[in-house]
Amino acid sequence: MSKKKFELEVPVQASPSFLFNYIYTPSGLSEWFADNVNSRSDKFEFIWDGAEQTATLIKSKYDEYVRFRWEEDEGSKYYFEIKIQVDDLTNDVSLIVTDFAESDEIESAKELWLTQLEDLKHAIGS
């Protein structure tokens, strides 16, 4: 079964440089994405309730986005990306998440991301 791509956009009241630390650094990601995050070079180890999952940082651009690929998806086109978008007219900041999930799991994956993004907003006081 192949995974389908989906996107979510969530407004966040924070500057891109402030947000970038929360989506790029292990300490920032530990605040909202996982219980703990460790990194060695481009390998990130995410820990939830004692279970570990490893992802490779495959692309990033300072103050703009990070893109990871889970170890289990190595060799595939699948990834997850967190992008910081600033509206040219209003300067409103949003996070755009791109991820992939099985067709029957897309809604639950979206709900999980929304919960995590709410945790991020709470962590940064947004």
Automatic annotation (TrEMBL):
Annotated START-like domain residues: 2-125
Listed SUPFAM superfamilies: Bet v1-like
Domain of life, source organism: Bacteria
Pfam families linked: START_2
Chain coiled-coil ranges: none
Family annotation (Gene3D superfamilies): 3.30.530.20
Protein's recorded name: START-like domain-containing protein
